[in-house]
């Protein structure tokens, strides 16, 4: 049930992100004004809740991937904990790459 | 019934692709959009959203999780005893994701 709920919050976040990008059709000022609007306590709380659900979704997704897609090395089965840990390492690297790209491209 | 059988792998494929995108990519975007920009850790005027491959990336980032959501809710609501409304649920869940796809494409092309 929590996982069902997590996808609702992720979808809500994506809608907010899309609305933010839409502001650019009215010019950079509208975009900047919208990003500033998100600094109100209500929106910060919303994003805290969304982030917690998203992290829950990520970790449980990595755990279930380790069950659904077992990894073999030769004839040895890699333990589920190791596969989950490798997913988390890949996730951290991907997140850093997105962050670096955003910092490099932002205007 | 035959159409349901033939389209089901497609929805499952979109479901898992959406799950992967949501798991690996969404949290860092929540940090950027929800905290870094509003709280002034990073400033941005949105110029990067005009780059074509950034648009393509955002299309994947936004659209695939919508199918993940649609597919998950279609089955969750069916299991919750709304099976008699199965057709309506399919229209709402998958239709919602398809409308979301069109709206996302329209906005990204317009920016």
SSE topology sketch:
The complex is a heterodimer of chains A (107) and B (111).
Chain A: H1 2-22, H2 28-37, H3 41-68, E1 72-73, E2 76-77, H4 80-105
Antiparallel strand pairs in A: 1-2
Helix pairs in contact in A: 1-3, 3-4
Chain B: H1 2-36, H2 52-82, H3 86-110
Helix pairs in contact in B: 1-2, 2-3
Describe the protein.
- The complex is a heterodimer of chains A (107) and B (111).
- By secondary structure, chain A is mainly α.
- Chain A has a two-stranded antiparallel sheet with strand order 1-2.
- Chain A has helices at 2-22, 28-37, 41-68, 80-105; strands at residues 72-73, 76-77.
- Chain A has a single domain, classed as Up-down Bundle (3 helical TM bundles of succinate and fumarate reductases), CATH 1.20.1300.
- In chain A, strand 1 and strand 2 (76-77) form a beta hairpin.
- Chain B is mainly α.
- Chain B has helices spanning 2-36, 52-82, 86-110.
- Chain B starts with a helix and ends with a helix.
- At the A-B interface, helix 1, helix 2, helix 3 and helix 4 of A face helix 1, helix 2 and helix 3 of B.
